[in-house]
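Hi, here's the filled form for the chain we discussed.

Project: internal
Contact: R.S.
Residues: 137
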Amino acid sequence: MDNLTSEYNPGEAVSASIAPRRSARLHKPKTYDSCAHTATVCKTQSMCVPVNVYEALRGPDAQKWTDAIMKDSDNLKSKDVWDIVQRPLNRNVIDCKWVLAIKRDPDRYKVRLVARGFWQKPGVDYSETFYGLCPFT
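And the returned structure, exactly as it came back:
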């Protein structure tokens, strides 16, 4: 039993090397959300998606964006998506916006017209909302 006991000397360094504990969790890869990284990536790629129509029509691919906008607007007209009516007094007119995208696989320019619904007031501009659900099979 004598060999198991030892005296403790606070000034003396411990000679035993203890391996540090390592975490067993998996680390997520770093995400780059900074504006500088986005600008660098966008500059190195040949195709950058414009933020709005103003940028799209003044960029190098203006004709492709114009063709995509005309194609989508003709598609909306052919499907009778909306009716033109007189604006009721004291009502909001909902603005719309073109959302632009470049599809990488077929290298095509895609636009879609979306309503800017955040201008609407519940109970004034609309009374019901719908949420599309997929049925479980």
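Let me know if anything looks off before we file it.
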